[in-house]
Design goal:
The chain starts with a helix and ends with a helix. The strands form 2 sheets. It has a 4-stranded antiparallel sheet, sandwiched between helices. The longest helix has 22 residues. With 199 residues, the protein is of the alpha+beta class. The chain has 8 helices and 6 strands. It has one domain. A hairpin with a 5-residue loop joins strand 4 and strand 5. Bound molecules: iron/sulfur cluster (2 copies). One iron/sulfur cluster (SF4) binds next to helix 6.
Length: 199
């Protein structure tokens, strides 16, 4: 696991977590979840963040799979750039990221990581490599916060996520105070536009 984590971080991953995943994918015992800071993706290319994000996430997934093949394990991963295609978005990245101890589900119903709050993209590699699941994350920033709920302009956040009310303004992503990236993120003008370009 440590070798996989180090390899992926050298290739550009900010976060790497491991968990079992047989309840979702009986043919693969384990999942490797790779997270990349949206701010870092934006810094790489402000003019075409979508393309950079797709390429970065897909390359990490492919490199990780090749590394696992070379170690003698099976590996598969849905490419990030294809996830909007019908029938392709089959990997529950958020649930697996939480299971791997990378974050918790916040009041905005997104994965909140200690490092980047909800401003992180995930890709998942399924593998036959046995893993020891990450320890549960002792982290609950929402216990003393309700910024995203208070700032949501349509009341979409509450006891459950009201999809029909969400206007995809991303205020709940941009306003979350968790993460070391938050001050730099907030210094960027037209944040909503930037976020829209990477979603
Ligand atoms: S994207 Fe905007 S409307 Fe949707 S839940 Fe977040 S703050 Fe509310
Ligand atoms: S803004 Fe506050 S309540 Fe909402 S997800 Fe972030 S920490 Fe949790």
């Amino acid at each position: 696991m440590e070798q996989v984590s180090q390899f992926l971080k050298k290739k550009g991953a900010d976060l790497v977590g491991f968990c079992n995943c047989r309840e979702y994918f009986p043919e693969y015992s384990s999942a490797v979840i790779v997270g990349v800071s949206v701010l870092r993706l934006f810094r790489k290319s402000q003019s075409d963040t979508v393309q950079v994000m797709n390429e970065t996430m897909d390359l990490l997934n492919v490199h990780g799979r090749q590394f696992l093949y070379e170690k003698g394990y099976g590996a598969w991963g849905a490419l990030f750039s294809q996830e909007d295609m019908p029938g392709r978005n089959v990997v529950p990245h958020r649930e697996l990221a939480v299971k791997a101890g990378l974050g918790i589900i916040g009041k905005n119903f997104l994965v909140i990581t200690p490092e980047f709050g909800p401003r992180v993209q995930f890709s998942t590699i399924l593998t036959t490599m046995p893993v020891l699941p990450g320890p549960p994350l002792e982290f609950d920033p929402c216990a003393t916060c309700s910024v995203c709920v208070d700032m949501c302009p349509t009341g979409a956040l509450g006891a459950w996520f009201r999809h029909e009310k969400c206007i995809k303004c991303y205020t709940c992503v941009l306003s979350c105070p968790v993460g070391k990236d938050v001050h730099e993120f907030c210094s960027i003008p037209d944040l909503s536009e930037i976020w829209r370009t990477v979603r």
